[in-house]
Amino acid sequence: MRIPTLNQWKFVAGVLGTHARRRWWAYALAGAGFAYCGAHYRIALNMSDSLPESIYLVVLDAKPTAVGDFVAFEWQRNAFYRRDWTFVKRVAGIAGQKVSVTNRAVFIDGKPVGYAKPQSLRGVPLEPIKEGVIPEGYVYAQAPHPDSLDSRYNVTGLIQSSRVIGKAYAIF
Question: What are the angstrom distances between the C-alpha of 152 and each of 9, 54, 114, 139, 145?
């Protein structure tokens, strides 16, 4: 391999400098676009089988408002995962709905939303969520997979709005 000479480097720098001076507006526009997207959106990857989709677009600071919406939230617990991990689940219950548990089967307003297994795949004991009405500012988040660590377990519990990063949309 031949090392370029100083004159060749000067030529390349000159061509690139001319290019940048003529197209500064395109670089400024692209930079502004990236800054805007980084401030308002995030990509979330589903690393488990809990949901069928693998990639989600998260609209930051948008709150899920209805059952069936996807919610992205911070884990913020000291068990199972790091505190800064982002989870994406489907909203199964909103404020005012009643959570009940019968023989570890969890219901929201009488509709079954999951079964709370007695232990995790690693053998750690799991307690089901406590019964009660979902308070204002909280959602019940769940995934259809039987091994999903979601609101059916006390360790996850109801998701407070301060933990919600944004509303998620499945990409694929």
Answer: 63, 22, 7, 12, 12
